[in-house]
Amino acid sequence: MSTSFRSRLCAGAAAWIFSGFACVALSGCTLPTDMVTGAISSKKTDQAPPSDPAALREYADRWGKAYDASPGEKVASMNYARALRALTRYDEAVAVMRVAGVKAPKDYEVLGAYGKALADAGELTMARDVLSRAYPMERPDWTIQSVQGSVEDRLGNYDAAQHFYTEALKIAPGEPTVLTNLGLSYALTKKLDDADKAMRQAADSPRADARVRQNFALVLALEGKFGEAETVSRQDMSEEDAKRNVQSIRKMIAQNDTWKGLQGKPGAKKVKPLEPEVDADAEPAG
Known about the structure:
The chain is mainly alpha-helical. It has helices at residues 3-16, 53-69, 74-86, 90-103, 108-120, 124-131, 142-154, 158-171, 176-188, 192-204, 210-222, 226-233, 239-255, 258-262, and strands at 35-36, 39-40. A two-stranded antiparallel ribbon has the order 1-2.
């Protein structure tokens, strides 16, 4: 698998899954455990940012003012950082959580949010270190483990990444976001049968969303199952957009000479990829 394709696959996965995977980061799926240095927190910090752009800007402004009034305060810092990450202002989110981390260096939620912001910003080595301290060993947090997996994937440590995803699934069996991350990690290591199995389970979950299904379509296209990939894509987009989406994946495969490498695995079915038939004036979907 070429380096350029690996980079695009990781980038696409990060954008599609944990936005902020995670992540899948693959980072950013924020479902805090309300744990503070091993104790139950009395403050609710799981106020997810709205998806509507105008509402998101209002949310960011409100929490930004709260943060300015008390830099490093936990709830304001975490919610403002979430908003900044949703706005793709990753460096700012890191700066906000760094201040909170200095004030509460043993707060698991703060460390988790800081690590996720670092992962979004591409500061992977530091993210790995911070995330490793974001939960107690006797009480692991599957949302953090999934982000840890995404960091290892982006560092090229696929065995370590898949270990984190597997451990996360022991705590949250069938969780579609984790299964999606695992499936994409398998795809990066040319284990397309395993990738298909994980992604199919994720897509079959009643909790699966459009991002999960579109990542499933990506894996199906990598397997050469273009018709099924279009069928999956049509669950969330028009027939024409689904067709263009799959065609853009075909083009990506062909341009990066990825198909040859993926088909080189033992027992792989030899299928010649079709050239994309994208209208010259059309923008590929996805």
